[in-house]
Each structure stands twice: as structure tokens, then as C-alpha cells.
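Section 3.1: Structural characterization of target chains.
Under the original work plan, the team committed to producing a structural model for every single-chain target entering the pipeline before any wet-lab resources were allocated. The record below documents one such target. The sequence was received from the expression subgroup and is listed exactly as submitted; it comprises 317 residues.
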Amino acid sequence: MSKTVLCRLPNHVGDCMMTLPALQLLADSGFTPSLIGKRFAEDLMAGMGWRYDPIEGQVLKDLGRVKEIARSTGDSPRGVLFPNSFGSALLFKLGGIRSAGYPTDGRGFLLDARLAEPGVTHEVNRFFTVAREAIIAWGGTPARDKPTPQLGLKLLARHRAGARNILRDNHITEDQKFVLLAPVARGLHKGQKKSWDHFDSLAKYIEELGYLPLALPSPHEVEEVRVSCPSARILEPTTLGTYAALCERASLVIANDSGISHVAAGIGARQITLIGVTDPTRTGPWNPAAVTLGSEGHWPTEEEVKNTVHRILTTEA
């Protein structure tokens, strides 16, 4: 039986990042992850060295693609479902993949291995438990019982070259220190907006400290960033892998509890994540170098954020 495991990734940037310890567990336990997910994550995951097949959200095309992937894997291919959705389980079932996952969204009958949910915990633990329990269900031995303390995102040379090129093309010299700002968090959480209100004032303060405030919004966020943080220097959008390389070079990354927070955590950047409506015990950055300010139902004050930025930047190695 093939040791390849087809892994259906979640549909959001942050969730994809939080599956990394689970995927590494599969690899360290003798399996070969083969990733299936939305196209945006292909570049972000490229440095991990695993096969990546994008799906587009078009049912018939996606099903044909999944069947092709399953056939290329060998007899009775195995899969792990990181999303909780019925649709992800149905896609794998119709594609001929014997999948393991949580029996959420009424999909238990579609699963080959129905795994017990771990209860309320951080999403990294939740994803890790899927992989660990799947390995046990297949008769294997997990390489470890707990996720690693860091996400462990790996970058390619082209990602780092892309980051250097962006800085060069925007006349930002090697000795110019910069802070990456991600002021936008799209969508609502329980009907509330997920972004802090004072990024523009923060950008001005960062400049007073002698650092260049930079923002690289996604193509869909450019206008929102211009409105919410006009004092930042706004650069053209780039790929997520190159963005991660910029996080690696930055003196500090400041973001809401959003995908960018988890991209920064992926490479172990010095970061501040601003919380106001989400639960950091479930979705906070999985990064020992991260500082989280605020709590569910309570945004941090402008003074609190600025004081923390000052402390971090003035103790920069």
C-alpha cells in the first residue's frame, strides 16, 4: 500500500499555516504528504517539498482532478481531511480516497476513519490530532505526541530573491529597517470586524522611531489599506511565499488575528498580533517570538500597542 497520504488543506491562509506541524508529523512518521488545496497556498507551501495539486472550487473539474491524483497514488489511496466541511469529505469519497477526519457537518458516513474530536483547543492541536489519530488508525506509530513549538515553514531561494527584489525596486536599501503592517482583516467574526482601528497612527509612530512602515496588501485589499493606513508606504501585492520572506527580513510584523499573522508565525518572525474579537487560545500565532495584545471582546489601546512596539524595536538585536 502506498505511503502517500492525500491531505486536503483548509481554505484559508491562517488555517493552512496551522496544519504544518500535522503535515510534518505525517512525514516524520514514514508517510509522504501530498497536498490538495486552493491555489493561493501553492506558492506558500512550495518550500516544504511536497507535491501540491490546486483545486478551484468547481465541482466537476475538482472531482476529475482528485480522481486523477488518486489513480496516480496507487491502490486504495489514503487521505486526511483538515477542513470540517461535508463537501471536502464528499470530494474525497467520490474521488476514491479512503479518508480520515472528524465526523463534523454530518459527514461521518463518508469517512473511512472517524476520529474523535479533541475538544476546545488551539487549531494547531486540532489539526495535529487529525494526523496523529489517522496514523494510529492506519496501524502506524506517530513520531511525536505533541506539535512542535514552531510551525516550521520553509522558504525557497526564489522567495528570498523576490523579497530582495521588491525592496530594491522600491529603493529600500539593505540598511533601512522596516516594519510590516497588515491593517486589514477581511470578513466578520460573530458579526464584528476583525481589524484594529489605529494602524495609521501606529505607522506614524513607527516612522518617528526611525523605521519604515510598509504594507503589501493582497489585490483585494489595496483600497482598504490605503483608507485605513495611508501613512504606511504601500507596495504592490506579491505572492504569499515572497511575503513570508519579507516577514523574515522585517524588524517586526504587526497584524490583526488574520492570515498574515500566521504567515509571520510560520517563519518565526518577531511579531505583534492584535486581538479584539477572536479567541487567541484557539487562533493566536503559534510562534514563541510572538506577542499577542488584546483579548476576545477587548482590543488593546493605542498606547499599549505603541509601548510594546517601542520595547521590541529598542531591544532589537
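The chain is about 40% helix and 20% strand.
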